[in-house]
Amino acid sequence: MTAQKSSNVAALQPSATLAVAARAREMAAQGRDIVDLSAGEPDFDTPDFAAEAGIDAIRNGRTRYTAAAGMPELRRAIAADLSRAAGREIDPLGVVVTAGAKQALFNTIFTLFGPADKVLVPAPYWTSYPALVHLSRAEPVTVETDEAGGFKLTVADLDAARDDDVRGLILNSPSNPTGAVYSLDELRAVADWARERGVWIVSDEIYSRLCYIADRAPGLLDLDAKYMERAVLIDGASKLFAMTGWRIGFSYSSNALASSMGAVQSHMTSNAATPSQHAALAAYTGDPMQRPQVREMVARFAHRRDLVCRLFREHLPDVQFPTPEGAFYLFFRVDSFFHDGAADSVALCARILEDAGVALVPGAAFGDDRYVRMSYATSEERIEEGVRRIAGALRG
Fold first, then answer.
1. With contact defined as beta carbons under 8 Å apart, do 86 and 222 qualify?
2. The pLDDT of residue 255 is above 90
3. Phi, psi (5° rounding) for residue 122?
């Protein structure tokens, strides 16, 4: 007997990126040599200073509940880190520690939006944004961007998409999947537009310090404090500290909104895992970018970015892609390779996986079926092998 699902989840689909990764693992378990370029996580180990703090917490019995919004000392450490970025004092009471940035996004969207509300979601987008809006029973409204404009929103794009029901806008810079980074002027123009129209900004800045054109991508805290009155910053330890499985993210907003989101979380999960919070406390104590392990990881990602761009220009010179300015993805155009046997990005990625043993994520999952996303969060040897196989599959 098939269970009847509620309207809350009737249209919900599993994460496309996780589905690709699962199929790649299944094939690898069968003995296939799979080059997995689908992963959305650093391939580096969690730095010792964080891992040892988590282990020490377990060994010393620091495994009990904390406040739902997180340990006060961790909220203070995160606020101190944000204060360095903002050049002004950030109140720890505005910080809510979550089980990964995805929970911070859910808390925010579920708290701010509901039935009859619309939320603008620029495409290409991270696959979970529209799903999270749907779960709040609001309506995601896709706002198309293109490669000619750097896959970045303009005020004209926003004006064309807006109506009186629009209450929110999701931003992501550096972007997953394109690697696009908004300049400070571009970000300010979007923030001015939102402020003038009473639209909330949800700014996902999880890749902010994996940036190749500056030490840190411009973010909400680089703007005047008034912009935070109707904005929420999302970040976390997953990418910068290679702590994806530890599940530590956070939101920063006004104290009143943070209190509401903490209340939501108290009824869902309570606190993020306590040993993970202790690991994150070690990570956020002091300036993360002064940590040699963190600086080395960022430098290696920059080198890989240059490598993958060079390899594509050598092996697939006719394939278009924007040079990533941040994150660790290449978003390349493949619609010229569509044919009867692979008529869209989903079918093309399936064929490349089955025939060439390379796992990629179809652009359809990000709202642009003309493209495919590859991750370069893997070794240089696997990147070179993966691009060689992709080129062979596309030319074949």
1. yes
2. yes
3. -65, 140
Beta bridge partners of 204: 172, 234
CA-nearest of 106, 103, 112, 79 to 93 is: 79
Q: What is the CATH T-level fold of the domain 63-286, as seen in this structure?
A: Aspartate Aminotransferase; domain 2 (3.40.640)
pLDDT in tens, 267-290: 999 999 999 999 999 999 999 989
User: Are the C-beta atoms of residues 182 and 173 closer than 8 Å to each other?
Assistant: yes
Residue 151, Ramachandran bin (φ over 0: left; ψ between -120 and 50: alpha; else beta)? left
Q: Please state, as a whole number, how many other Cβ atoms lie within 10 Å of the Cβ of residue 245.
A: 10
Q: Give the type of residue at 209.
A: R
- Are the C-beta atoms of 109 and 202 separated by less than 8 Å? yes
Neighbour count for residue 213 (Cβ, 10 Å): 13
pLDDT at 1 over 60: no
| 57 φ/ψ angles, rounded to the nearest 5 degrees | -60, -45
Tally the C-alpha atoms within 13 A of residue 322's C-alpha that lie toward its C-beta: 26
pLDDT at 3: 62
- How many Å apart are CA 211 and CA 287, to the nearest integer? 16
The residue-averaged pLDDT of 214-228 equals 96
- For residue range 26-84, list pLDDT tens digits in order: 888 999 999 999 988 999 999 999 999 999 999 999 999 999 999 999 999 999 999 99
Type of residue numbered 152? K
Output the pLDDT for position 17: 67
Q: Is the pLDDT of residue 19 over 80?
A: no
**Burial of residue 64, with CB atoms counted within 10 A of its CB: 0-12 exposed, 13-18 middle, 19 or more buried:** exposed
Sign of CA dihedral 131, 133, 136, 139: negative
Q: What CA–CA distance (Å, rounded) separates 215 from 242?
A: 18
- Residues near 238 by Cβ (< 8 Å), separated by ≥ 6? 41, 100, 101, 206, 244, 246, 247, 248, 249
pLDDT of residue 16: 67
Fold of 16-45+292-395: Aspartate Aminotransferase, domain 1 (3.90.1150)
Asked whether the domain spanning 63-286 has the same topology as the one spanning 16-45+292-395, the reply is no
